[in-house]
Structures are given as structure tokens and as C-alpha cells.
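Sorry to interrupt, but I need a hand with the structure work. I would like you to pick a protein and set down its sequence and fold. Please put the record directly below this note.
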Amino acid sequence: ILNYDIMARFRRRTCIILLLFILFICSIMMALKTLRPDRAGFGDPFGLGLLPELQQRTVLLDSKQNLLNRAQGDTVTRVSNLHSIAVNTMKASMSPVKKLEEELSSPNYNFHIFYYTWYGNPQFDGKYVHWNHPLLPHWDPKIANNYPKGRHNPPDDIGANFYPELGSYSSKDPTVIEAHMKQMRTASTGVIVLSWYPPGMADENGEPTDDLVPVVLDYAHKYNLKVTFHIEPYKDRDDRSMYHNVKYIIDKYGSHPAFYRHKTSTGRLLPMFYVYDSYVTIPEIWANLLTVSGSQSIRNTPYDALFIALLVEERHKHDIHRSGFDGMYTYFATNGFSYGSSHHNWASLKAFCDSNNLMFIPSVGPGYIDTSIRPWNNHNTRNRVNGKYYETAFSAALLVRPEIISITSFNEWHEGTQIEKAVPKRTGQVVYLDYKPHKPNVYLELTQKWSEKYRKEQEQWLM
């Protein structure tokens, strides 16, 4: 009996220890998420929702491209007034520019950063825009019923998992624009990739923002930054509309000193356009615009430029080449989410681009979390791991020796890819994530660190 009791106690103790060990391992895995989720392909539901082609242009694609034509007179007047305020503000602050240049890191024009001007608040816009983002339902009704519905209620409840140091700001606020330019310059980035819709158009949750471009250009110039354009999938985007919109951008903004032009290997200085969701349009349509023999060819005209397509699936590389694009970028900050965003595929993509005279522009990001607007999408979260995830992405990018590195993003708060300053915040039932134990500017500092590292390594590549 004594031996039996001893053995029973031993078994219980062993089971308890084993259970605690398993719980410890599970907690570590959940916390870190893994820095290389290579098997998280686009077969998962999130991929289908975010990538229109993979849903074969279902209702979600229609929703993504259902852009609203809301160019109203009062909005134009308000933006015009804001532009005047911005110009006056800039004139008053131009005197310390020389001192500013001495204090800030030099811009790296091979570091391109995605930037969004779609945020609004009552002070500047008469209402909240984008901060009150709706909770997006899952396309499977059975799954959707398990998650909350409705919209966020700013300023304390916003459509983001982190909270900006500047609060629920308006992208029309000149002081906000200047603060953003200073942060991007501090990070030693050089080119702002500005999300752009044609005049009168916007994403399904926003308002037209083309009228803000002059203000962004002016402040970018003050900080010695350049601006290029991230052309979004506006309604009826095709070869003809793209020709007219590229012409519009170059005619209207091309003479501004902050307008970005890239020096090619042949010595030409050409504008650059990133084309989001380019794969939605078939290669034959793009070829009309982007090949010399195309019926709507922009080549060898005053509006010729470098056009960079979004690569998601591996097969897209052949479509991109056939379409006449000049290069490809990967955008997503979720390593393993798509073929293009998976770090371990970048070497083969770079080799393909090199052999076909294309630019390869990998996109790095600090992490990913969008459960504030897609509450069912927790499995695609990429933990920041106090900056380690970001540094891993930069390290992977430098290994392929790219001519340009793009950063996703400066301020895409909905998807938690921002490097803009964020602060701790708790309100009611909502507790926001933050950058602790680091300061709000930690991701700006990390970007600056890798910008300098890239510069030094690039000098070695060219030797």
C-alpha cells in the first residue's frame, strides 16, 4: 500500500509538471507568433478577403472598387483654405530650415515609405473619417455571426490596435502633415509613396484627397523629401484611364521640386508609379499602355515613367513581365501571407527580375495586426517582438541587394503596420497596444539605423 501511494503521488506530480511545461511552451508560441510563418499561404481566408483575384472578383472585389464620387464644393473650398493656411505657416517657418537640415539624418532616396492621407476629424473635416472604420464582416455568414458588428466611435475608440501620439488626427491639418514629414525625415527615408485616387474618387470608407497633394509636396520639399504616387484600384481603372491619370499627375505636379524622379541605369530621370492590385487587370490591357507597340502606349512620350506592379502569387511575375511593367513590389508586411511577402522567396524573385531587366522592390514592415477592423483575422497577426520582426525583414531585404526598399508603412493604422509614433492608451474596455518598453519613436530609430546600414552595404555592392 505504501509503494502504491508513493507511485500515485509520483504520477500526479509528473502529470502536473508536464502540463505546466506544455502550457509554458504554448504561451511562448502564442506570444512570438514566429518570425517566419512560411506555410501561411494565401489559401487562408484572410488572403481571399484582401486579394480580389483570389475571390474571382466576387462581392468583396466590387466593394473594394466601389469608389465614391463625392467631390463637393464645400470640401474643395475647405481644402483650398487649408492650403493657404499651410503656405502661410510654411513661410513663417522657413528661416530655421538650415538648422533643421543639420539636426536631421540625411534622406535616403532608396528608402520608399507608403503614406496615407485618408484620415479626418470634426475640426478639419466636419466629421471623423477612417478613424471610425466599420468592423468588416467575414464572408462566411456562419463565422461572421460569431463576431461583433458596427463602427468605431472616435476619438477614444478608433479603428486601430495602436493609438497615434497625435491622436485621431486629420490628414488636412498642416501641423500634422509637417509632423509626419519630420518623422519620416528623422527615420532617414527619402521618398513618400502617397496613396492616390483620381480627383473626386476615394476608397469606400474615405473622402477624395487629391486636393491635399500640393500641401504634401510643399512640406515634403521643406524636409528635402520626394513624393511619388501609389495608384489605388479606382473604379474602371484600365489602360485609357491610367494614361489620362498619369498625364494629369505629371502635368499638375511634375514641375514641383519634391516630385520624385528615378535615375535609371541608362541615365534617364523618370517618374515612378506604384500600382496597387495591378494583377486585377489582365496583362493584355496593361500591355496596351506599357509596351512600345501598345494601342494606348505611354512609352517614349512626355508621360513615360517607371511602373511598378504588385506581386502576390508567383505566377504574377510572368504576367508583370508580359504586361510591360518596369518592376515589382510586394507590399504586405505579413511574412508568409503571400508568395511575394515571404522573405525566403525574395532571392528567386530578385533573380527573375535581374534576368528580365526588371526592378525588384521588397516591402518590409514592423508587424501586422488588423483585428480592430477584421476581428476574425487574429491568425494573420505578426507580432512586432519589440522590433525584432522589423529588423528580420530588413535583414532579408538587404540579402538580395535591391536597388530600392519599400516600407509598409508610415501610417496604415488599420492594419497595424505603422512606424509613426504611438503611445499607450486605455479607455473603457479598450486597451491599445504600444511600443513599450521602447519609446514612441523606436520604429523611426530602427528605420534610420537600417537606412544607414543599407547605405554602407550598397557602397560595398557597387565596388
Summary: The longest helix spans residues 2-32.
